[in-house]
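Quick check before the chapter quiz. The format below is the same one you will see on the exam, so make sure you can read both the input and the output lines.
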Amino acid sequence: MASMLSRGSQIHPLFPYPVPLFIKRTAGAFNCSTKSTETPTITQEKPPLPKNKLSSQNPKRALKVLEDFEPIICIESHWHLSTLIKAFFSCTYNYGAQPNTNICPVCMGLPGALPVLNSKVIEFAVKVGLALNCELSLNSKFDRKQYFYPDLPKGYQISQFDIPIAKDGYVDVDIPVEFGGGHRRFGITRVHMEEDAGKLLHSDNGTNSQVDLNRAGVPLLEIVSEPDMRNGIEAAEYGAELQRLVRYLGVSNGNMQEGSLRCDVNVSVRPIGQSEFGTKVEVKNLNSFSAMNRAIDYEISRQVDLYRQGQAEQIVQETRLWEEGSQRTVTMRKKEGLSDYRYFPEPDLPEVILTNEYVENIHNSLPELPEMRRRRYEKMGLNMPDVLFLANDATVAEFFDATIANGADAKLAANWIMGDIAAYMKNEKVSISEVKLTPTELAELIASIKSGMISGKIGKEILFELIAIGGTVNGMIKEKNLVQILDPALIEKMVDKVLTENPKQVEQYRGGRTKLQGFFAGQVMKESKGKANPGLLNKILLEKLNAND
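Here is the expected output.
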């Protein structure tokens, strides 16, 4: 394998696409020289336009920019499917593996190597299509998408063109309260199956690149939205909702930092009242939903500024990159049209035919989805911030559901999970499935506090031990003698002791410094080792302090 050949690329002014060169594989990756006779592909614009941001942090600017214009946004998102093997062959893919160690003759595009469809890809695609309320194509097919690039050894990508496996769906999104709140429905144009390409690893000086084919052939679902979004917040929340959905379904981990989710955003603006869409600009290199929000709002601002400067013709159909450092988009390349890809049916794969029984079985296996769960939590009386937090992660939602199934009050369970438990998970960088606390014991803890057996303060102390080392609530209460003191005579004796030991503070309280009540309560709590019932303590304390008034 040491002498395996790959293609390099040399850019020539007359040819907009790479011209192949043959070079040898070295040190685990295919080395690919990229000499260029023109400026680098990613270009800085000179002079730069004013660095305007249309973001939630600058609402006045946002309103002014959008005064006479309407943004139109749609998103193409690509999701790595969590299958054990690749889409059309039996080799595996492990993120982070050494370059070119997860490859086989098929994903390397060697002559005579034929694809065989992984049936899990179809199952996952149908799950997503159903979850997105799509119309499924019972008869679909694969197509070859022709283009040439060093990380695509076959010279084409197996995809779906005119008959996607799912189309005409929608997804419902709840916008967080801090961004204005409300419910939105965004249309889904299509969902189709395809394979991923390899990855180019570029040198710092830009003189050469290395090709890693580990990712080549990894199964992807591409989800294309309708142009229904109008700002960066809506787009980011749409993306986050799709991420929740695929994680609930278990079809993808949706991790943007691993490349398991890649989003390309199409942005255009048009004057208010105009029915035709403006010129579409694609924005790439979005590594987080926050970056997506900022990139979209910048691009809206850039296009509106060009309109207002009488330079609308400078808005051309192109691909631009988001630069996180400078917080702006820059030109990458002119956008290829569909005709450049020369699609035709994949001759080495049969049609994909779904039966009604197959679809029905998958439909019946679907879990409760994020939107359904949010509506159920709302009916419990939880407010929207609680609902969004709990339903965001399926494992957190399952923990919450199991806690209330054991008799805990929904609001109290939500408070504990969103407060101390969430803080612990954040600090220790663990998931809720990794903590030692069980839903049964959280419900028992809530019941013990509600019944007055232990105080809220002691409850917190027990909670942290349960999270860190496990155990039972009742066992800890007995072992540490933490039962709350409810005997009025015993609490009164402790109050008398504290008042006797602090005569000066008693005099000051009776002289008008009533805030000293907290001082006395704290001293009594200290005397009782935190076990005195707070309500009973304060009642007896006030009676004693006000007795001589």
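If your answer matched, good. The radius of gyration is 31 Å.
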